[in-house]
Amino acid sequence: METKIFTFKTNINCGGCIAKVTPFLDEVKGISNWNVDTANKNKILTVVSDGISESEVIDTVQKAGFKIEMI
Fold it and tell me: Could you list the residue range(s) of the whole structural domain that residue 25 is in?
């Protein structure tokens, strides 16, 4: 399966926010790695997909209570 990298603009802006979203992203199948660049003004979430779709990432982050949009 081809690995894809998705990037999203979010409002995950601090360590507490990352701690809140971590269990949601970690329990989803199909993500091999993810991180949030809180230093970037757009709080860029980068997801290395191992089968998950962009829409599934968006749904997961929204379930955690955060805003997210594709770049």
Answer: 4-70
